[in-house]
Write a structure and sequence with these properties.
Number of strands of chain C: 10
Number of strands of chain B: 2
Mean pLDDT of chain C: 91
Radius of gyration of chain B: 19 Å
Helix content of chain B: over 70%
CATH superfamily of one domain in chain C: P-loop containing nucleotide triphosphate hydrolases
Low-confidence stretches of chain C: none
Largest interface: A-B, 46 and 46 residues
Strand content of chain C: 15-25%
Order of helices and strands of chain C: EEEHEEHEHHHEHEHEEHH
Shape of chain B: globular
CATH class of one domain in chain C: Alpha Beta
Helix content of chain C: 25-40%
Strand order of the largest sheet of chain B: 1-2
Strand content of chain B: under 5%
Number of helices of chain B: 13
Largest sheet of chain C: 6 strands, mixed
CATH architecture of one domain in chain C: 3-Layer(aba) Sandwich
Oligomer: heterotrimer
Order of helices and strands of chain B: HHHHHEHHHHEHHHH
Distance between the termini of chain B: 21 Å
Chain lengths: ~290, ~325, ~240
């Protein structure tokens, strides 16, 4: 029999991680829903941002979460540049070509990181929030709690923005009909670029939060990429709420896999669920389209 | 069976290539290190040319190559070590098991219309799932399994020097290419190419899309499952880590760089990238680890953006230039 | 009169709350060219998609040569002898023209050489220029694309051919050319045709009998003259583009 306190601990951990996954996946979902771009390198931006966070945190000797003030705008700009150089030329290309190009981009990012930082894991040695709240046998890591809270707040802010701002309206109009949007005075290319930049900026926020306790290595992005895609697949398209629920499900599945199968098999459990969701609910659990 | 002129030309080109490759060990004086690299490159050429069936003709971005090759290889290795069955039989068993897994995965996948990005993700997930299942103590656990030294010689397809295995690999590569030539010039090939271009239009012309995708997937898996043992024999060891995501993606990458649907492109791309990669790794690996992968990445981006037809278009141009036909 | 080749009975197809095809019934007689007209959004293409198995109708039955084909997948319907073309051509861009048509021919033969011969015949039948047989799909004009689409469908040796807005995007001169091709194909092969069109002029000269759809329903049937003078038809077209 597995200790109920352990299960509870793992489940809480799963929920907190799930919120962070939602944050990271949101950018991917927006980009895919808006411009049909299949980005297989999404997670690799988390990895590059995690290194950037680490470098800045070490330089200033502040907690990684603080570096978001620098990395989020920086990665927004990087996102714009990547959009211009790599994404715009493959808009409307067949899926296989898009996958190929973004897999190539992922390879480039991974191996740049490998060349510069080598394979060893990097983490910040003096995190500020390295303690946990104990409630009887149950402990909650404060750093993860903060990360989850910031993620949740960001999701709601973006949701608010999509529903209530002029930019949000432009995004939704362009998602709904790319041919008609320009007739309404929307600069489609600009909307695309900003959305892509935003998506990459969100990966930087996710990375800064993750580095509060986590460590990065050149291959960190691979699991983030796959997990983000799993969340997009489950969530269907477009909706922030779909991404939020799917992220939570992924986090909880991971916790269950970790508890009942083995910690190393936790991703396999998520992917197995992904298989069955794709087979039986091809439009996602909360999906439209 | 009657072959058209183009097919006959392709078959002759494959035979010429096999003979030329078989002669290489003599040219390099049976140097062990070079033979090892050459053999590894040939293994990848088999995988990539086989991948061309599902990826190039059918247009499904399969990222699970090492599931099928490792599964087939391990089946053959286990049959050898545990039951004393020769890999000459074991490799067919491995092909059968890999094909069966492909059918089990492929049937519902194609039945539910999963394609494009979702197919790629599904197959990428498959690698992780199978690896973790194999990682469980009931299966392979965390151990390294070395093939015992007592199994040596042609009966076991294990050799103290590399050239014999290399020749076997070249023969398998030749067979894989001939299977490609046959598919490409048969009803299956035309149907797969039509599916790749436009599934709905193909279906309205009477193409049973699911059936032909499944044929492509199972054929590809069977070839990989068959060749898997040779890969293990080359390395002398297998573990759950053989179910490798990065290597599986590498197979697809080489296929794309080679040019979808081009046998010559797939072959050239696999051999060149693997040999150049190995050269870069041995020369610069200490200074810039991952340089060869960095170059693969840049090549992929460049090919994707500027030359989606891949290396094949370069080969095509070259053939026109020198007025030489051949497989393509 | 002989048994109709196609019988459509009370077919209903809904999308969400919209009824795209509403209790449609009609017969198609062997050998005829039947015109099916109606303004944009009348449900013509949806009806085609129900007949060819792209959609499964919610209600109703479709019989082809006395056999029920309702809800069969497209490839089985093609095998039974119904072929189609698409409103927006769906070319196999990277294949050569002959190869694309061979895909159709391979439905009735497994022999590639024989399929090539039949593909060339089908292309010749629709008047596709011989010197372009071996260029790629990406290098031909719109009219030629329509010819390839047509040849591809004919190569499956259908009994019934559904043409979805074949004239769309063509210049008037090209339309006349296409109309005479269709008449010739009908005469030489005896293939029954249903021609969907919202350009009335094109169908008028082509078909002996016409059906008119409006908002998912059949509202009129008759000879081109009868239909053109039917007040309901005129009303349906008023306010839309009459052309």
């Amino acid at each position: 029999m597995i200790d109920p306190a352990l299960i509870t601990n793992n489940l809480i951990d799963g929920v907190l991680m799930g919120l962070l996954y939602s944050l990271v996946a949101l950018g991917l979902s927006l980009v895919f829903g808006l411009m049909d771009i299949i980005n297989f390198a999404h997670g690799d931006f988390v990895m590059i941002a995690a290194y950037t966070t680490w470098v800045i945190a070490m330089m200033l000797y502040v907690d990684p979460s603080v570096t978001a003030i620098i990395t989020v705008p920086l990665f927004f700009v990087i996102g714009l540049a990547i959009y211009k150089i790599i994404i715009e030329p493959i808009l409307g290309a067949e899926p296989l070509i898009q996958i190929a190009v973004t897999v190539g981009l992922g390879y480039v990012l991974q191996n740049l990181a490998l060349a510069y930082f080598r394979a060893g894991p990097r983490s910040f040695p003096a995190p500020w929030f390295n303690y946990s709240i104990q409630i009887g046998p149950i402990g909650i890591a404060v750093s993860k709690l903060i990360a989850a809270a910031v993620s949740l707040a960001s999701l709601f802010i973006i949701n608010y923005m999509l529903v209530n701002t002029k930019f949000g309206l432009a995004v939704r109009a362009t998602s709904a009909n790319r041919e008609v949007a320009p007739l309404m005075g929307i600069n489609v290319r600009k909307v695309f670029a900003i959305t892509f930049g935003l998506g990459i900026a969100l990966t930087a926020l996710g990375a800064a939060l993750y580095m509060m306790w986590g460590q990065t290595n050149p291959y960190l992005g691979q699991s983030f990429s796959l997990l983000s895609w799993v969340i997009v697949a489950m969530g269907g398209l477009g909706g922030v709420m779909g991404v939020l629920y799917s992220g939570l499900i992924v986090g909880v599945l991971e916790a269950l896999g970790s508890t009942f199968v083995s910690p190393s098999a936790r991703l396999a459990v998520v992917y197995l669920a992904f298989f069955f969701i794709l087979w039986f609910r091809p439009r996602g659990l909360f999906g439209r389209r | 069976m009657e072959f058209s002129k183009a097919v006959r030309k392709d078959i002759l080109a494959v035979i010429a290539l096999v003979l030329a490759m078989a002669a290489i060990p003599f040219a390099i004086g049976f140097e062990r290190y070079y033979l090892l690299i050459l053999s590894t490159a040939t293994v990848f050429a088999i995988y990539v040319v086989a991948w061309n069936i599902i990826g190039g003709y059918a247009g499904q971005l399969d990222l699970a190559a090492f599931v099928y090759s490792s599964l087939g290889g391990i089946v053959a290795a286990r049959l050898m070590v545990y039951y004393g069955i020769t890999p000459w039989i074991g490799m067919f068993a491995g092909a059968g098991v890999a094909a069966a897994l492909a059918a089990i995965i492929g049937y519902p996948t194609f039945r539910f219309g999963i394609k494009e990005v979702w197919y790629a993700l599904l197959t990428a997930s498959l690698v992780v799932i199978v690896r973790e299942i194999m990682h469980m103590p009931e299966f392979l656990g965390s151990l390294d399994y070395r093939l015992p030294w007592k199994y040596m010689g042609w009966y076991w397809l294990r050799f103290p020097t590399y050239e014999q295995l290399y020749w076997v690999l070249v023969a398998v590569l030749g067979a894989t290419m001939l299977i490609n030539v046959w598919i490409s010039n048969s009803k299956i090939g035309y149907y797969l190419k039509a599916i790749r271009e436009d599934e709905l239009a193909a279906e309205a012309l009477g193409v049973d899309v699911r059936k032909y995708k499944l044929i492509a997937l199972v054929t590809y898996a069977a070839i990989l499952g068959f060749a898997g043992y040779l890969h293990i024999s080359l390395n002398g060891v297998y573990t759950y880590k053989n179910f490798d995501s990065a290597q599986s993606i590498a197979v697809a990458i080489m296929g794309i760089i080679g040019g979808l649907g081009s046998i010559a492109g797939a072959f050239t791309s696999a051999i060149t990238l693997k040999i150049v990669g190995e050269y870069l790794r041995s020369s610069f690996g200490a200074v810039i680890p991952g340089l060869h992968l960095l170059i693969y990445g840049i090549l992929l981006i460049v090919v994707g953006i500027f030359k989606p037809e891949g290396l094949a278009s370069v080969i095509e141009w070259f053939k026109k230039k020198v007025g030489w036909g051949g497989e393509g | 009169m002989a048994e109709p080749i196609l019988k459509v009975r009370d077919v209903v197809k809904r999308f969400g709350g919209i009824v795209a095809v509403n209790k449609v019934s009609f017969d198609v007689n062997e050998g005829e060219i039947l015109g099916l007209i109606g303004p944009n959004g009348a449900g013509k293409t949806t009806l085609f998609n129900c007949i060819t198995g792209v959609y499964r109708p919610e209600e109703g039955h479709i019989y082809f040569m006395g056999e029920e084909i309702t809800g069969l997948p497209p490839h089985k319907i093609a095998a039974k002898g119904i072929a189609r073309t698409w409103q927006k051509t769906r070319p196999f861009q990277k294949m050569k023209v002959v190869e694309a048509v061979m895909v159709g021919a391979l439905l009735r033969t497994n022999d590639v050489t024989e399929a090539r011969k039949r593909a060339e015949e089908a292309l010749a039948l629709v008047g596709f220029p011989r010197e372009k047989f071996y260029v790629r799909g990406s290098e031909i004009t719109l009219l030629e694309h329509k010819m390839v689409d047509l040849a591809r469908a004919i190569a499956t040796r259908p009994k019934l051919l559904l043409l979805d807005e074949v004239a769309a995007g063509l210049r008037p001169g090209e339309m006349d050319q296409l109309a005479s091709i269709l008449k010739r194909v009908n005469r030489e092969t005896g293939i029954t045709m249903i021609v969907v069109e919202h350009v009335m002029r094109f169908v008028m000269g082509l078909s002996q009998r016409m059906l008119v759809m409006h908002e998912g329903r059949l509202i009129a049937e008759g000879t081109p003259e009868e239909v053109a003078n039917n007040p309901k038809v005129i009303e349906a077209y008023l306010g839309t583009k009459p052309e």
